[in-house]
Amino acid sequence: MSAFYESLGINKSDFELLRDFIHLKTGIYFEDGKADVLADKIANRLIENNLTSFLDYYYKLKYENDPDEWKELINAITINETYFYREYPHIKILIERIIPEYFEKFPNIPLRIWSGACSTGEEPLSIAIALTEAGYYEKYPINIFASDINPFSIESAKKGLFKERSFRVLPSDLKEKYFIKEDKVYRIKQEILEKVIFRVKNLMDFDELSFLYFSNVIFVKNILIYFSEFSIRKLIDYLYNKMPKESYLFVGISESLLKYQPKFELVEVDGYFIYKKNSGAQE
Ligand SMILES: C[S@@+](CC[C@H](N)C(=O)[O-])C[C@H]1O[C@@H](n2cnc3c(N)ncnc32)[C@H](O)[C@@H]1O
Questions:
Q1: CATH of the domain spanning 88-277
Q2: CA distance 153 to 43
Q3: What is the pLDDT of residue 98?
Q4: Centre of ligand 1 from the C-alpha of residue 82, in Å
């Protein structure tokens, strides 16, 4: 980065304009002390656009409504960290408890699983691997839908190519069984990739997502840490109202919803907490 841009600090009012704009559109919130973090993340966008101030960049975002710039901004501000079998106990609960219970009650109604912040796809593809391992695709109608706000992540997920860092906890026998090594990357087998439908979707855009909120199992994991309390409350209230009865919500293992006093019932399974909209819930 040139010395000019390195010296380009962000002043309080420009930071607040950009921060509030991003918050409104995405739910992602940069606290007051994070002005430099935001400035660092988007400084390159100023360079690429030949702009010399954060205020000009704000005006560009707000008034030009340029979808290509929006993609680049999203890519610059989101954290895409993810890997196969991350927080595996949640997948185990899904496989061993939720799915068998669901099909005992509703044997002929397809189960819909939605991974709402799937990044480059490791989370929903882990679910597809676990379902295959359990032999569930032969027994049950199950659909997995996966989405993320970052178009570059979804593009990458659809390709099904993964680097070594995605495999830090996946058992090696599963890696061998479901991936083919190609030079420096691993290609996931088509039979797994085709189990997941990937789309670009913003969790804060309720209209765009209306059909997905009716999923029986929703994962919004390791994303709420980037959201404001306001956005989390808005999202979980909306999810609760839209999800069908007898449905489950998973958030990251370190992300508790308790302070929001959600209407979901908190269910403990093997020491892990998940949120359930139970059968007595008001629609
Ligand atoms: C740290 S990754 C978590 C990935 C995966 N859920 C996991 O736990 O491994 C967070 C993801 O949330 C996505 N994200 C951030 N804001 C979002 C929004 N408003 N709607 C949908 N996805 C969003 C980011 O693009 C990023 O891919």
A1: 3.40.50.150
A2: 21
A3: 97
A4: 9
User: Which overall architecture, per CATH, does domain 3-77 show?
Assistant: Orthogonal Bundle (1.10)
CA 105/CA 181 separation, integer angstroms: 41
Torsion of CA 20, 275, 80, 164, to 10 degrees: 170
Q: 161-162 and 185-188 as β-strands: parallel, antiparallel, unpaired?
A: antiparallel
**Pairwise CA distance, residues 195 & 142, whole Å:** 9
Radius of gyration of the CA atoms of the chain, in A: 20
Q: Do domains 3-77 and 88-277 have the same CATH topology?
A: no
Which letter does DSSP use for residue 218 in this model? E
Tokens found for residue 192: 């797994």
Cβ–Cβ under 8 Å, residues 105 and 216: no
- Band of residue 1 on the pLDDT scale cut at 50, 70, 90: very low
What are the sequence ranges of the domains in the chain?
Answer: 3-77, 88-277
DSSP-derived 3-state class of residue 135: coil
Mutate to test the pocket of ligand 1, among 119, 232, 235 (most ligand atoms within 8 A of CB): 119
- Cα 260 to ligand 1 centroid, rounded to whole Å: 20
185-207 pLDDT, tens per residue? 999 999 999 999 999 999 999 98
What span, in angstroms and rounded, lies between the C-alpha atoms of 214 and 276?
Answer: 14
Amino acid at 227: F
Residue 75: closest CA among 46, 45, 36, 118: 45
